[in-house]
Amino acid sequence: MIRTICCIGAGYVGGPTMAVIADRCPEVQVTVVDLNQSRIDAWNDVDLSKLPVYEPGLDQVVGRCRGRNLHFTTRVEAAIANADMVFLSVNTPTKTKGVGAGQASDLRWIEASARQVAACAQGHTIVVEKSTLPVRTADTVKSILSAAQGEVAGAGSPKTFSVLSNPEFLAEGTAIPDLESPDRVLIGGEDPAAIESLASVYGNWVPQERILRTNLWSSELSKLTANAFLAQRISSINSIAALCEATGADVNEVAHAIGTDTRIGPKFLKAGPGFGGSCFQKDILNLVYLCGHYGLSAEAAYWQSVVDLNTWQQDRIAQLVVQRLFGTVTGKRIAVLGFAFKADTNDTREAPAIRICKDLLEEGAQLAIYDPKVPAYQMGADLATEPQDAPTGGPLSGEGVWQRVATPAEAVAQADALLILTEWASFAQLDWADLAPRMRKPAWLFDARSIADLAAARAAGLQVWRVGCG
Ligand code: NAD
Ligand code: UGA
């Protein structure tokens, strides 16, 4: 029976996942550790609106459990020493240099946390890979742990380990419902007792038939495959969106028509500015790298095309804005609504808005960016420039500038165009009769998320483009 859990990594996965485990398993003490002191401080903030991860419902779950059986600390060693089970939930970004740069996952944080477990664990410890990892990473984790097998730390009993793979399938913005009612929980492993220990934790709230057991490698590879299939659907529909625009078809109608076929299904068929988020691109690139590593070049090229189409879609939207604004956006104010990679999150990692805004800044545009959850410092970090009111060399100098604004109304003041890049629900309610007169005519609405009331925008005098509509 598992009584104490430690999770290494208090990020978008570690924080919400452990909060839900603590909520659903009141008899288990859950400690989430991180090296990042400010992140831990934010998890411990008495003001629950200041948690480092914004997820609807997360504040309530944390509010119920924190201090009872959910703890956030930087005291990594003590938490590992006390744990029956340790989750590794650290970041695994794409390598930026060395062998496999631009494709392979950077496993330095996984290796460091496995070494920490090897050093600090006491007695028998079940080590669970929660991070998304290349298939066969468990070999590495097992090798590191086995080097410490049998050692005795302090007054404890000899160290022994079992390694499991338990990838996380939550999506940001819906993390709490995804965790509370998952389609499935996947557990891969070789040690039946360890598998059943973890299954019994989830068994507190997940029906048994939704707890899948596989071998380690199937579990690791299923996570990469799930993300690749989801992303592939988005690239597929975005490719059809361009064809719709060229032919007079409407991608929403096409998506509905094909999605009603039960073999295809309706989900993940929403055309947009391309997928963002910290994982789709990195996980597909990792799959591309793995295929290449095993000599499967045609398979690698197939998956690479999913990422290439996504990049193309982002560039296509920026170019289209420039074309419609008479071929130049230099010195023109463009209101950008939405910077997060999807609604209901403050996460901007790989957000389509970053590439599209950078393309427009390169063209000399003056961007007024509004997002309800993304602060200016985050936009600055992503755009790699400081906010600025106006170009130093004058509006036609060709220098692109951006600023964060507090409301959509402020964003559109004297703007030539408004570009919607995130599907925040409030953007469906924009009052076009109020916004349109604030813009410089002729003015455009570019709706890359298919969310705005286009009839109202047209009635207010705007020219309108919507993704996938001819
Ligand atoms: P994140 O960057 O938000 O969090 C990772 C945390 O780990 C950071 O706070 C970092 O400081 C900490 N960390 C790194 N090394 C450490 C160490 N040795 N000791 C203590 N703390 C350490 O990342 P994330 O978004 O939570 O993703 C984590 C993993 O989960 C990744 O592999 C990702 O692919 C996967 N995943 C993410 C999502 C998602 O929605 N973000 C969903 C499913 C799976
Ligand atoms: C995705 C997966 O959905 C999760 O199952 C997985 O656990 C997670 O990646 C991960 O491994 O990190 P997430 O990236 O948080 O979750 O969010 P999604 O809802 O999948 O959206 C990803 C991107 O695709 C967003 O930019 C979204 O706007 C876009 N998208 C999604 C579309 O453009 N069209 C769609 O139909 C669906």
Helical proportion, percent range: 40-55%
For the largest beta-sheet, the strand count, sense and barrel status come to: 8 strands, mixed
Average pLDDT, rounded to a whole number, is 97
Q: Biggest sheet: strands side by side, in what order?
A: 3-2-1-4-5-6-7-8
Instruction: Write out the CATH superfamily name of the largest domain.
Output: NAD(P)-binding Rossmann-like Domain
Bound molecule kinds, no repeats: nicotinamide-adenine-dinucleotide, uridine-5'-diphosphate-glucuronic acid
Show unreliable segments: none
| Amino- and carboxy-terminal Cα gap | 60 Å
Q: Which percent band covers the strand fraction?
A: 5-15%
CATH architecture of the largest domain: 3-Layer(aba) Sandwich
Radius of gyration: 24 Å
How large is the count of helical segments? 17
The CATH class of the largest domain, by name, is Alpha Beta
Instruction: Report the CATH topology name of the largest domain.
Output: Rossmann fold
Count of folded domains: 2
> What is the general shape?
elongated
User: Strand tally, please?
Assistant: 14
Based on secondary structure, the structural category is alpha/beta
Structure, described:
- The chain is α/β, with parallel strands linked by helices and about 475 residues long.
- It has 2 domains: about 210 residues, NAD(P)-binding Rossmann-like Domain (Rossmann fold); about 160 residues, 3-Layer(aba) Sandwich (Rossmann fold), CATH 3.40.50.720.
- It is about 40% helix and about 15% strand.
- It contains 17 helices and 14 strands.
- An 8-stranded mixed beta sheet has the order 3-2-1-4-5-6-7-8, sandwiched between helices. The protein has a 6-stranded parallel beta sheet with strand order 11-10-9-12-13-14.
- Strand 5, helix 6 and strand 6 form a beta-alpha-beta unit.
- Helix 4 crosses helix 5, helix 5 runs parallel beside helix 6 and helix 12 packs across helix 13.
- It is elongated, with a radius of gyration of 24 Å.
- The model has no long low-confidence stretch (mean pLDDT about 95).
- The site of uridine-5'-diphosphate-glucuronic acid has 20 residues, from helix 9.
